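anyone seen this seq b4? input:
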Amino acid sequence: MIERLAIIGVGLLGGSVAKAARATGVAREIVGVGRDLSRLSAALSERVLDRATIDLADGVRGADFVVLGATVFANESLLETLWPVVPRDAVVTDVGSTKAGIVNIARRLAGSRPVGFVGSHPMAGSDRSGYGFARADLFQGATVIVTPTEMTDAGAVKRASSFWETFGAHVSTLDPELHDRVVAAISHLPHLVAYALVEAVERFEPAALAYAARGFKDTTRIAASDQRVWQEIFLANRAALRPSLEVFRAALAALETLVDAGEPGPLEDALAKIRCRREALR
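predicted toks r here
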């Protein structure tokens, strides 16, 4: 049982953590920390939070588990700020979509005082943002990747993993750099491509968007995601995103060559192979 859970950033993911914690009873007290008390009022009125504050030091005081629920760059800055004041026996984790940056900051800060930081990435979310879209069941059946290093306390890793498993998540472990390559391929690249596809249609034939049906809308749904969140993710993970874009361009060029050739057989064979790979995901 967590005595005091502090959640810094009570938006879609942080709010879903708070709701899941309340629903499962994993914490006796849930404290929300944000920049504006008025934006925490809904969670307080719904009794998802027991207390709210805009003072980070006050919010983590006495906490034995802390979740950084803000954006990628904000979480990195928050980790530096809370490191000197968070209780020594607390576990600190985050929900960010990139891991190498924040893990490197934790490595550097560990020289000043030991803190049980464990990077986490819940592979769950929405194209909507904000506490109003938070759900207690958001992590049910989802994958959460934790990214310990050789310096991470084994007890902290166990506590962080158990935390997510309490919400019904499946926990996997990757090193931070491999994590960033994996999510560049299966998350960040698809988001960037979805944005580009909408832009391409606008440039090619703007009138076509009025006739967009389910296929186009399904394919580009994630292009409706919060641009403030995703510009940070793209920039934070650009070291892994850049080579994934190069491979995507090559794959698209190969299909373009087959279309230009006008021969149905080779094109159908290529599409059939790709279809088999996609069907294996079901």
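Strands lie at 2-8, 27-33, 51-53, 65-68, 91-94, 116-118, 120-122, 143-146, 170-173. The chain is about 50% helix and 15% strand. kinda curious what u guys think
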